[in-house]
Amino acid sequence: MASFILHLANIDPGVCAKGSLHAYISLALLPVAKFMHRNKHMHGVLADHLLHQCIDLIVELLKQAARLGIMMSDPQGFSRYCFTPLIAYVADTLEELIIACTTMNSSPVTMATCGDFGDQIRHPPRDGSSTLANIAAIITSISLSDLIAFFEACKHYNLNGVNLPFWRNWFATNPSSFLTPELLHHLHKMFWDHDCLWCATVVGSQEIDFCFVLLQVCTGYCAFKEGISTLKQTTGQDHHNVQWYIIGVIAGAAPADFISAIWALMEFRYLTQAPHFTNKQSIVDAGARQGKGGGDKPWAIPKLEWLQGVVPC
């Protein structure tokens, strides 16, 4: 059985990252059922229905509190009038698709489909209201009792056949907002499944293993005495450890443009984990930039503000 856990958004991330501090509360155990439908392909659809039904029951009081509010005590013991919107649902890609009610060839958070995944632009967000509108339109012409026909109709809208998403009546809740990127699956696991495989294809698995065996690791860093290609069961920490070395391992053995591409992806992953996205203070501390006329506004630079428009352009 799978566990459905919950934590508050105002708890420090450093506390949440330590399992021993128990920042998460297990609310329920989700059943793993076996279905008797004659079409085995429909078993997955039924499992998706069951997941949404279970979560719907579990979070009903939270949905009421999001809509009406509820009195809660803060850490000092004072009563506060609180609301409980769904801020983030942490899941891997497969579960995100189920939660967003989309098919495998679609994005759970944007309108992009499989053929669009390599585009250099971010496609429009997948709005929950449009998903619900499409489901309602299908129900007007096809009975829910005919599961196969309903599922086939849903595929035309890139929907997975769930008719009652648990988030449908949760105030101010939208899958494109609460389905957020997650370090383990969307950064470290992506590196292991794709970037690392690309490097092995270009350089060769034996060469990469040989380089990892020769590495003189420092205290606190992981040693791979038999290389990495033979690793069977890997954790997020293993993926993280390989990332520390991969650029140095492929340097000189892969084309320069390929190394630059892998380096850019690695740099992106590290930056997304940074608590702050600016190094301006280091420039001020070094005395390289001061406020005009000795003032306290060292960044009154029009061209600096203009850089904020590069991505939208």
Radius of gyration: 24 Å
Q: What structural category do the secondary elements indicate?
A: mainly alpha
Distance between the termini: 47 Å
**SS element count, helices:** 13
Strand content: 5-15%
Major β-sheet annotation: 2 strands, antiparallel
- The number of domains: 3
Q: Low-confidence spans: pLDDT under 50, at least 5 residues?
A: none
Judging from the principal axes of the Cα atoms, what is the shape? globular
List keywords for this structure.
313 residues, mainly alpha, 3 domains, two-stranded antiparallel ribbon, 13 helices, 44% helix
Set out the fold topology:
Elements: E1 2-6, H1 13-16, E2 25-30, H2 41-58, H3 60-68, E3 70-73, E4 79-82, H4 93-100, H5 128-139, H6 147-155, H7 175-178, H8 183-203, H9 205-214, H10 236-250, H11 256-272, H12 280-285, H13 302-306
Structure notes:
The protein has helices at 13-16, 41-58, 60-68, 93-100, 128-139, 147-155, 175-178, 183-203, 205-214, 236-250, 256-272, 280-285, 302-306; strands at 2-6, 25-30, 70-73, 79-82. With 313 residues, the protein is mostly helical. The protein has 3 domains: 31-180, no CATH class; 184-272; 280-309, no CATH class. It has a two-stranded antiparallel ribbon with strand order 1-2.
In short:
With 313 residues, the chain is mainly alpha-helical.
